[in-house]
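From the shared-data thread, chain only:
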Amino acid sequence: MSETPDYKSTVFLPRTDFPMRAGLPKKEPGILERWAGIDLYRRQREAGQGREKFILHDGPPYANGHLHIGHALNKILKDVISRSQQMLGKDSNYVPGWDCHGLPIEWKIEEQYRAKGHNKDDIPINDFRRECRDFAEHWIGVQAEEFQRLGVIGDWRQPYTTMAPKAEAQIVRELAHFATSGALYRGAKPVMWSVVEKTALADAEVEYADHTSTTIWVRFPVVHTREAALEGGSIVIWTTTPWTMPGNRAIAYGQDFEYVVVRVTATAEDSLARKGERFCVAAELLDETLKTAGVTAHEECARLPGSALAGTVCHHPWHGKGYDFEVPLLAGEHVTTEAGTGFVHIAPGHGEEDYWLGRAHGMVPPDTVAGDGLYFDHVPMFAGQHVFKVAPKILEAMTEAGALLAHGKLTHSYPHSWRSKAPLIFRNTPQWFISMETDDLRDKALAAIDETRWVPARGRNRIRAMIEQRPDWCVSRQRAWGVPLPLFVNRQTGEVLKDPEVFERIAQAFEQETSDAWFAADPCRFLGNDHDPDQWEPTRDIVEVWFDSGSTHAFVLEARDDLAWPADLYLEGSDQHRGWFHTSLLESCGTRGRAPYKAVLTHGFVLDEQGRKMSKSLGNVVSPQEVVDQYGADILRLWVVASDYAGDLRIGPEILKQMAEMYRRMRNTLRFLLGALAGFDAATEAVAEPADMPEPERWVLHRLAELDAHLRTACNDFAFHGLFFELNQFLTVDLSAVYLDLRKDALYCDAADSPRRRACRTVLDHLYQCLTRWLAPFLCFTAEEAWLARHPEAESIHLELFPDIPATWRDDRLGAKWRTVRDIRRVVTGALEVERAEKRIGASLQAAPLVYVTGAHMEALEGLDLAELAITSAVTVIEGAVPEGAFTLDDVPGVGVVPALAEGTKCARCWKVLPDVGSHHHPGVCGRCAEAIDNPPVSRAEA
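Structure, as tokens:
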């Protein structure tokens, strides 16, 4: 008998140069070079001419170090959104920017001076500022390269910076608006102050951490009251900030609380309470106060409503030692009975609520603490001492005065500087403020919040609560590196010069020479001939950096013809509700009457795999540079879009491995499509209408239509993790495990021009067109590689649009039918797995099972070849009850499979076991294969 020929050359096996191993760390830099060579950013702008604009305005990162994983999350998400909007058919122009002024850079330069034994204050201010500018410029260059390595496309040749002369000039003009309208004023009131950095801090520069404070219970002797029970007694306050006691000027009580006056009759041995003394505390807090003070027995003298305390006056505990003033009791809404005594000591110079309560009663906040945390020389008893070291002295002085009732320690959440990590104080100091009430700024901002789309929606309530409660905006800082506060103040009256021409001369000088001109020029240059320089003193504060970044909409969006105001989207971390979103809102509402954005998207923070904050001490820091070097930027990009960034995200070695595995499946799908489409010519081979295709092909087109709708919804909602879950399911289940699996036989073994194979290759072409474009905003490097593998003459996939899916592809009835078909198929393949495990078959093509189904299942299988679907050589479908012992799945009732072997001989070309093998003129093959061998394609390019 003659030997069966080798038919391998007649089988249409996939052919592609697209490699299975990605090698992204080495390949991606070459793609970046290609984009630079064709100037992809500029080509996108040309392609977008005349389209609707979509402007995502970049919240500027700080230019002072290498990127961390939070930067990568933020910039990749921005790039994904910008690219996806471009591919939706818009002109999505992304302009990156940097925040350059402020304390972190100033500190770095100061450190360099200290290392050389130099004092910053001995250096000419513009020399110092020049070094700060150079430092920022260096890190802008470094970060720009690192951002681009992540695949972020934008106008890297012309980014914006807050230290650019035109930006500094516009900041002057923005401040001028507030100054000339009367909204900018100078006031002395408590602000959050860093004694380490010697400057006021904005809310966004404050973080909260545990801090252990000394707590004290202090007697204030009553000297005037309408209540007999209080005469000769004392009011007891409790505070966690003993250092504020020199600033005390009043005591607050709750108008609606019940208070009790008690007389001490017995005490513990170490108690500071005295037998026979009387004091008053809130009734709810009496037991805790007595226990803390070591009072073992007492008599109740009276119960009083809070309103009865009106008009009561005390002496300061150090009366007669320089604190010789009356301390009135005042009703305060901020008093609670959650802890303490129900009385709050009021230091108008050291607390926001204290300040406003004192102001309402005509109190002038005393100056007690200097910027370095030391008491001023005029403060009795404590001059020159540091507020964070003075607690033992306070305790000693209170004890000597007979005022200390008890003391202790409390660990609680306390404000710290996010830069120095040092605890902060509230300190009364002259500062410049923008009023929240002048020009109805608060009301305008609240209205703008309601007009803005917030993603997720809870962001609206968060920022609304902040705006409702926020005090006036402190916009001055006592540092050197920043935009100078461009104000002249009358030396006699303290009045601010509101001349628009003066502000414009300042702005023009800054635009020509940078804001260093403020320190270098004679004030006459700005004042002109209309104002006597002897009468007007220039300020020496700088503008807080949050006003800088809050003004970016003015010197970026409005200043560039290729952008638009307001922005379509602002996107930053959720902390920016009190930062950039917040200050941009106030600045824009104050100058333009509305928010500078239409929508705001917030993402969470990045934690390690255990949900812990990243820190060097824990050794759990994930560097984006290391991820890119090991895996490639596309893996990092996949992590971003596959995560639910509405909350906090997690990353670590295991998660990155999962992302790499997901990527491998996506890449292998693209590779299979490219291989299977070798030689495909749509003009001669494609099947135009779904109605002319077999049902499996029509089902895949239906799934593409469903995914297209999901993609467009995800792009509109800026929420991609659900899309990627569905896309991953589509690739791994619908395609790899079902459609591509069942169609490999037709692809490899059907005749080149068979209707089934042509329909399949047409659908594969649609799959390729959709998947490469859909993935382009997300896996920007891999999509480009896959696109160029088939279109080597093309410029870039990133100049394409998402494909328009014909409405005829959507067939929900077919989709429902195929859910049933796939359930039946799962039962059959499950039975085959058992047969394989028991070694009764080697491959599924050896099987010809009997499949029992219900009438509904039989209806779903109408027109389908279940053997083709299940990849067996034959199947017998029987409508009827499932016999005993048949293979079943609990979640697919009514379907059972009885295994059986296929009858016939194995075809040497397609490997099916069929009765007709060997009965054709080509030895060892079935009839279908014999016909395919006789009808090769005109060109064997795809073979």
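The mean pLDDT is 91.
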